[in-house]
Design brief:
UDP-N-acetylmuramoyl-L-alanine:D-glutamate ligase; seven-stranded parallel β-sheet; single chain; eleven-stranded mixed β-sheet; 20 strands; multifunctional enzyme; alpha/beta; Rossmann fold
């Protein structure tokens, strides 16, 4: 199985790009910015009707800016359709811009009701969050936070317009209190921050209203990332030639498994086999050889008590997967140093990343790093919370520091490499948050690398493959109790579309 032509991913944009798109679209409309607001409010009303057609009581929480203006337009449509509608707002949230004022006046002049929020929300079947959208990148102040908490506490679904208020639509972080929506309708183009990190617990079901902005306008602005979904996976593989042999599919050498950690390197080795590597070797402690051969006789397991015996194994391998169960002691450090010096393509995970953070040795070109946020923090010399506050920035910084492809694992894994458009993995589930799943990812990426994928494509495809396999495994038995080894059967199916 070799690399296929890759389908272009869905594009994601940051706030600056979205504002540029809005300005370009307004110019194409002859300068009529209110037309975009009118379209946004109408699209939001249609989305509400599509999701909750029986809703009769609708409460719209409006902020002072254009997001609030979108909410007023929605409220006017709901009111004109005969629904019981109420706009609630904080005393300080009277419309400030001309567009929002115009939308508010149209709603009020048509007979719409506006109430000042006094600590209690009117009864509703659906709540609409039109407080800030993408316009807020800091923690909400106390009055706003109290309103957000009241909305979250209401026993009804919430529709967020453009972005859940309190979520940074560029980074995906929640610096303070934030709306937890049942659904979020994005306007014009997809927002990068809504696909990773904290945002995934707040956006609910994501959808997009283009507001009829034409493709040539979108082409004027560069995206900041792409988004890979399960449906993108089949396009990344093609059938093997009928006269293939094992040498055509690459040889992966997995290095790890210090005392008591043999399972980690075996998970990586079996994942490499299930993802199509033609040959898989394992260099590990002698104590693990018998157990590993009993578990997976297809792997060629070598007892390695000293780095001096590694060179012949290096020569036979195409790619090295280093780190699962490696440990950070003298044995692991010696094997790690030898692997980095051998000149072969590397996939580094777990203890190999911690050793990389501790030592000054640089990985060779073509290396793939697969850190979780804690490992990324150690590599960068910052805190884990700083990594999570802006996962895109952390991934970019790792690329800049090490010159490697990077899979920053977590909710909405971010894959980056020098000179490449970063990719966000829109798959995976909390069941993957268990020890050993990272070792499986290491094997996935190494197997693809051995089969001819570039470092970046192996990282992106391997991360997507791993996440989708996790989703299929969770569908079969639930997220809690999911084991890393549960991914092996779906991995095999997924690489054979």
């Amino acid at each position: 199985m070799s690399a296929a032509r890759l389908r272009d991913p869905e594009h994601l944009y940051d706030g600056a790009a979205l504002r540029a798109l809005e300005a370009a679209a307004t110019q194409q409309l002859g300068g009529d910015a209110f037309e975009l607001m009118r379209r946004a409010g109408q699209a939001a009303w249609r989305e509400l009707l599509r999701r909750w057609p029986q809703a009769q009581r609708i409460v719209v929480a409006c902020g002072p800016g254009n997001n609030g203006g979108d909410g007023y337009v929605l409220a006017r449509h709901a009111f004109d359709s005969g629904r019981d509608v109420c706009v609630v707002r904080l005393e300080a949230h009277a419309p400030r811009g001309g567009l929002a004022q115009r939308a508010c006046e149209a709603y009020r002049d048509g007979g719409g009701r506006i109430e000042r929020y006094d600590g209690a929300l009117p009864a509703a079947d659906v709540l609409v969050d039109a407080l800030f959208g993408i316009g807020l990148s800091r923690a909400p102040d106390e009055p706003c936070g109290a309103l957000i908490e009241a909305i979250n506490a209401a026993p009804v679904p919430v529709l967020a317009l453009d972005a859940p208020s309190g979520i940074d639509a560029d980074s995906g972080s929640a610096p303070g209190r934030a709306i937890r929506a049942a659904a979020t309708l994005q306007f014009i183009a997809a927002h990068a921050g809504l696909y990773t990190g904290d945002a995934l617990d707040h956006v609910g079901a994501l959808s997009l209203a283009s507001l009829d902005v034409p493709g040539d306008v979108l082409a004027q602005v560069k995206p900041v990332a792409g988004c890979l979904r399960a449906e993108d996976l089949p396009t990344r593989f093609r059938p093997r030639p009928r006269n293939s042999h094992k040498g055509h599919s690459g040889h992966v050498l997995c290095i790890g498994g210090d005392a008591g950690k043999g399972g980690a390197v075996m998970l990586a080795a079996e994942a490499a086999l299930r993802c199509g590597a033609g040959l898989v070797s394992v260099a590990t402690r002698a104590a693990h050889v018998a157990a590993l051969l009993a578990r997976r006789p297809e792997a060629m397991v070598q007892a390695v008590e000293s780095a001096t015996v590694l060179p012949p194994l290096f020569r036979r391998a195409d790619v090295l997967a280093v780190g699962p169960g490696l440990g950070e002691g003298e044995w692991g450090a010696a094997l790690h140093a030898a692997a980095l010096a051998c000149g072969k393509p590397l996939v580094l995970d777990a203890d190999a990343l911690n050793l990389l953070a501790r030592n000054a040795q640089s990985p060779p070109a073509g290396t793939v790093l697969t850190p979780h946020p804690g490992e990324a923090a150690r590599l960068l010399g910052i805190s884990g919370s700083e990594v999570q506050a802006n996962r895109f920035a952390a991934a970019h910084l790792l690329c800049a520091c090490f010159g490697c492809a990077v899979v920053l694992k977590g909710a909405g894994s971010v894959v980056a490499a020098p000179g490449e458009l970063p990719q966000v993995i829109a798959a995976g589930n909390p069941g993957l948050a268990v020890g050993g799943t990272g070792d499986v990812l290491t094997g996935c990426v190494a197997a693809l690398r051995a089969q001819g994928f570039s470092a970046f494509d192996a990282a992106a495809t391997g991360a997507l493959l791993h996440a989708v396999a996790g989703d299929l495994a969770a569908q079969a038995g639930g997220e809690r109790g999911l084991l890393p080894s549960d991914l092996f059967e779906p991995l095999r199916r997924l690489v054979n579309p």
